[in-house]
Amino acid sequence: MTAADATPSENAPHWTEPGAWPVAPGVHRIPLPLPMDGLRAVNVYVLETDEGLTLVDGGWAIDESRQLLEKSLADLGRGLRDITRFLVTHVHRDHYTQAVTVRREFGSHVSLGLGDKPTLDLILDPEASTADPHVQVLRDAGAARIALAWERYSKDMRPDLSVWAYPDAWLDGDHPIPVGGRTLDAVHTPGHTQGHFVFADRAARLLFAGDHVLPRITPSIGFEPVLAEQPLGDFLGSLAKVRAMPDLTLLPAHGPVAPSTHDRIDELVAHHDVRLDLCRTAVARDAGTAYDVARQLPWTRHEHALDDLDLFNAALATLETRAHLELLVARGELRATGSDDGVVYTIGG
Predict the structure, then answer these.
(1) In this structure, are strands 109-113 and 83-87 parallel, antiparallel, or unpaired?
(2) In terms of C-beta density within 10 A (0-12 exposed, 13-18 middle, 19 or more buried), how is residue 317 classed?
(3) Parallel, antiparallel or unpaired: strands 206-210 and 249-252
(4) How far apart are CA 110 and CA 120, in angstroms?
(5) Which domains does the chain have, with CATH numbers?
(6) Helix 261-285 with 311-330: angle, nearest 10 deg
(7) pTM value?
(8) What is the pLDDT of residues 81-117, one digit of tens each?
């Protein structure tokens, strides 16, 4: 089956339907469950070689995911011990932690982007404070109410270190990776996280896109425990980098396979252009903090108000607004000034 054959149609199963779905010769998509209402599943991609299996992403280290991965591999006549390598797009737990647990049992080799090392350093530091770093960032964004709720939610929480560890190798800079008879181009695409990578099989016209390019939603920007200086600027730069590559079939971490990376990237760029315009207009109308601006903007495809979002999504929305405003500051269109209520944005460089 070709990638074009695997493009979803009206009669195709929902992308979260369990199974080992072929997307190209020797490549299968396995959706694994997530313990949350929003994303529902993460796609793990299995590349077959004579030496064993290479997986792009590993899934979340929970029992349901482990069991479904084992069953799906069994449908291919394979098992967990056949996995020789994980190429992980980024450090988020729904992509990384199951790679760690499978490696612990079977010795698989795990690679991860070097830009995500500061996040792992924070997770794995036994002396690290239990205070969540997002609390102060939310306060600086003027979201005192959300910061207080987040502080209560995260109080004394520590990560489960049984599912976290350093990788065997750090991905650093763009470079080719041989995978059996194919070559994947590892391409550094910071934005969603600082260490995010995508993997391009140009010969087969496939892009294993992780969370960099998603077919139906926009990836979160500016939500990392160790903040990038310009996460949205990084993300837009990474989109331009991938847009300059040939048009490939989009193999996303969340959502169905899509026929064109170029088409979706163009949509994502247009979306952020609109959001930048809305942020600029909101500041011109009534200068304020990132939280003040976020409360003036619509959220999700259903255009909810910020105050109608749950805690997690309200925090995401506030910090994404902050990323848009900081990019406008960097472009000289806005001015940022510290205050007791947080950073206040006004028109003018």
Answers:
(1) parallel
(2) buried
(3) parallel
(4) 14
(5) 21-128+160-269 (3.60.15.10)
(6) 80
(7) 0.94
(8) 999 999 999 999 999 999 999 999 999 999 999 999 9
